[in-house]
Design a protein that fits this description.
The chain is α+β, with helices and mostly antiparallel strands. The chain has 8 helices and 15 strands. The site of N-(5'-phosphopyridoxyl)-D-alanine has 14 residues, from helix 6 and strand 13.
Length: 279
């Protein structure tokens, strides 16, 4: 049986229900986290909880009343859903309103929903020789608050759906020739001995994986630069990677119609990082 958690109880997946008057349903008025679990332990849980706290503050959504118990609820859910490696999805919406109104009733209580499923192994762990991702560059269609991990993801969904129909693996957004991030990931590029990634701002989500990868690079003594990255530079990079909690690190092979320089995994930094990703 697969378990979920809604507000203050664990409920089997088949039985869980929310009201259509929930503002998450009506307005996409909610925030979320996606937390990977390895060997039954949530990875960088504190960072995910801090980011969730930030998202709640930025949107003025109240903290769920079980706020302090969230780590315990996550651990209980992991136990109930058994798989050693899981993806925990956690969403907080502003809650259920009596009538649909853009201006929320300040007295409503937030809805807290969690579920989890088995984490698929990063395909580049299973087969490092698998061809890298084929992505397209797209002018960033999103709003000005991409730093908030909001459930309002229609632009991301449309971009990924269209890329998928074109037979591509993903999208890299840019604003006037400058890379922001992927539709569900951050972007890194290697130039010689340095690794560059877009700086934190309201145009990107501050990925927990991004932070982890920057720290891994630091511990290996590799120079990291958080600075603007042009699309033109990206085409000339030695390596380009996409990072996220579910993807970990994945290499890019093709951007638009440009093939990146072909390197074997053993000569590539992404492969080295993936080997030490969990240690
Ligand atoms: N998304 N940027 C965007 C727009 C994202 O949606 C994500 C992750 C990231 C990477 O963040 P992190 O390293 O903390 O996972 C960057 C998750 C996985 C999702 O929406 O499913």
């Amino acid at each position: 049986m697969n378990w979920t958690y809604l507000n203050d109880i664990f409920i089997p997946k088949e039985e869980v229900r929310i009201s259509p008057f929930d503002r998450g349903f009506l307005f996409g008025d909610g925030v979320y986290e996606v937390i990977p679990v390895y060997e039954s332990k949530a990875f960088h849980l504190e960072d995910h909880i801090s980011r969730l706290e930030r998202s709640l503050k930025q949107t003025g959504i109240n903290k769920p009343k079980v706020w302090n118990d969230i780590p315990q609820i996550i651990n209980e859910l992991i136990k109930k859903n058994v798989f050693p490696n899981q993806v925990v999805y956690l969403q907080v919406t502003r809650g259920e309103d009596v009538v649909r109104s853009h201006i929320p009733d300040p007295s409503i209580s937030p809805t807290l929903f969690l579920n989890s499923w088995e984490l698929s192994i990063n395909p580049y762990r299973l087969n490092p020789d698998k061809p890298g991702l084929d992505v397209k560059i797209l002018e960033d269609p999103r709003w000005e608050r991409c730093d908030v991990k909001a459930t309002t993801l229609l632009s991301n969904v449309i971009a990924l759906r269209e890329a998928n129909i074109e037979g591509r693996d993903g999208v890299i957004f840019c604003i006037k020739g400058k890379v922001t991030e992927g539709a569900a990931s951050n972007v890194f590029a290697v130039f010689g001995n340095s690794v560059l990634t877009t700086p934190e701002s309201n145009q990107i989500l501050s990925g927990i994986t991004r932070k982890h990868v920057l720290s891994l690079l630091g511990s290996k003594g590799i120079e990291t630069l958080e600075q603007d990255l042009s699309v033109k530079n990206l085409y000339e990079a030695d390596e380009v990677w996409m990072t996220s909690s579910t993807q970990e690190i994945q290499p890019v092979r093709k951007i638009d119609d440009k093939e990146l320089s072909a390197k074997s995994p053993k000569d590539s930094l992404w492969f080295d990082l993936l080997s030490s990703y969990l240690v």
